[in-house]
Amino acid sequence: MNVLDLAGVGVRLGDAEVLHGATCTLDARTIAVIGDNGSGKSTLARLAGGLVTATEGRIRVLGLDPAREPARLRRRVCVVFSNPDAQIIMPTVAEDVAFSLRSQKLPRAETARRVDAALERFGLAELADRSAHDLSGGQKQLLALCGAFVRRPELVIADEPTAALDARNARRIADHLFAAVDTRLLLVTHDLGLARRCESAVHVAGGTIVDAGAPEEVIAAYEDTLRC
Amino acid sequence: MLTLHRPGSGPWHRLPAGRKSVLLMMLVLGLCLLPTSRTSAAITAIVCAACFAVPGVGLRELLRQLCAARWILGVTAAGQLLFLGPEEALANTVRVAATVALCGLLALTTPVSTLLEALERALRPLALLRLDHRRAALVLTVALSTLPVLAGLARQVREAQRARGGGHSLRRFALPFLVLALKHADALGDALAARGVR
């Protein structure tokens, strides 16, 4: 099943056409989305996460139509944003992770077990009762990842998850993202080193997909556009 | 900052969230209905202190709560002194202080997720009116949880103003704060959707 199927997809936000004629079929475990600021990368990620609706064309995410099957999409797909502050919903670390399981209506013991396991996996177990808002930027982003992965999604869409982090934390976050072998990853990034670690890449420019394929080729073509 | 739950095993911690909320609500109501006098103020202060002077909480926590609410208490006391007189000012300010502290006691001894569940149960009758009680409880909880974020945004705006040499101006503060708050609301909506909340 393809991760993303786009055929002539366009998105209008008010009067602005932020995505148009986007067409591609992506099927890899890890996919990088690269491009300049304002090129439409985040809109593509939000479209795939069902956070914005296509105004034209046909889109399928893991075979699902986000507009017609939003609940099924939300069960299988998680989105992580670049600003970790905006993702904190509950006051403490453990409660924030547990909040992600709220929609799954699991028994209390099962929720606690999964939360503990996720906190352990992301190195947050000792911070479980700390205020989520008082964590460092890197810890907050780890919390956001933890909140996404605890739901055991099939696809994680990460929109520049390392953008505001130092090199050490950025590497930790990236390692966690790539270590999840049973989860597919759609990674929007400006870090071409991270994009190279993916199995496939997409170049977005001027609100449309201009290139897709093997990361080395897509990145080389993108780097050519950077030369003055 | 929003009062955070402190894990513990004291009597307040062991009390179920629903019963605890009702008990504290009744206590606050009872204290507020006492006549406005020095004696009532003393009774209110003693009851409030007794509620905190149990294992797992402590009087230091009471002081912390009152310290956090010092501006509200100060404004209340000043207004009452100006318009009513010292005895009424004392009684009413102690009432407000006790209300703030006892609400804080609920938050201190109950995890927000447990409060959310209790709130959901309490709002269940709304389903008879075809209202989504789960969503109503979630809205209230998210509103509470957003308070520290709004405090952070306010600090951010003030620092940006100072960095540019700006003085204190409510108008210059209000507009960027409102824009940031709305942007945060937008991001929060996305974060909720990203966590599977309709």
From TrEMBL, chain A:
<comment type="similarity">
    <text>Belongs to the ABC transporter superfamily.</text>
</comment>
<dbReference type="InterPro" id="IPR015856">
    <property type="entry name" value="ABC_transpr_CbiO/EcfA_su"/>
</dbReference>
<keyword id="KW-0067">ATP-binding</keyword>
<dbReference type="GO" id="GO:0042626">
    <property type="term" value="F:ATPase-coupled transmembrane transporter activity"/>
</dbReference>
<dbReference type="InterPro" id="IPR027417">
    <property type="entry name" value="P-loop_NTPase"/>
</dbReference>
<dbReference type="GO" id="GO:0043190">
    <property type="term" value="C:ATP-binding cassette (ABC) transporter complex"/>
</dbReference>
<dbReference type="InterPro" id="IPR003439">
    <property type="entry name" value="ABC_transporter-like_ATP-bd"/>
</dbReference>
<keyword id="KW-0547">Nucleotide-binding</keyword>
<feature type="domain" description="ABC transporter">
    <location>
        <begin position="1"/>
        <end position="228"/>
    </location>
</feature>
<dbReference type="GO" id="GO:0005524">
    <property type="term" value="F:ATP binding"/>
</dbReference>
<protein>
    <submittedName>
        <fullName>Energy-coupling factor ABC transporter ATP-binding protein</fullName>
    </submittedName>
</protein>
<dbReference type="Pfam" id="PF00005">
    <property type="entry name" value="ABC_tran"/>
</dbReference>
<dbReference type="InterPro" id="IPR050095">
    <property type="entry name" value="ECF_ABC_transporter_ATP-bd"/>
</dbReference>
<dbReference type="InterPro" id="IPR003593">
    <property type="entry name" value="AAA+_ATPase"/>
</dbReference>
<dbReference type="GO" id="GO:0016887">
    <property type="term" value="F:ATP hydrolysis activity"/>
</dbReference>
<keyword id="KW-0813">Transport</keyword>
<dbReference type="InterPro" id="IPR017871">
    <property type="entry name" value="ABC_transporter-like_CS"/>
</dbReference>
TrEMBL record, chain B:
<protein>
    <submittedName>
        <fullName>Energy-coupling factor transporter transmembrane protein EcfT</fullName>
    </submittedName>
</protein>
<feature type="transmembrane region" description="Helical">
    <location>
        <begin position="96"/>
        <end position="116"/>
    </location>
</feature>
<keyword id="KW-0472">Membrane</keyword>
<dbReference type="Pfam" id="PF02361">
    <property type="entry name" value="CbiQ"/>
</dbReference>
<keyword id="KW-1133">Transmembrane helix</keyword>
<feature type="transmembrane region" description="Helical">
    <location>
        <begin position="136"/>
        <end position="154"/>
    </location>
</feature>
<feature type="transmembrane region" description="Helical">
    <location>
        <begin position="63"/>
        <end position="84"/>
    </location>
</feature>
<dbReference type="InterPro" id="IPR003339">
    <property type="entry name" value="ABC/ECF_trnsptr_transmembrane"/>
</dbReference>
<dbReference type="GO" id="GO:0005886">
    <property type="term" value="C:plasma membrane"/>
</dbReference>
<keyword id="KW-0812">Transmembrane</keyword>
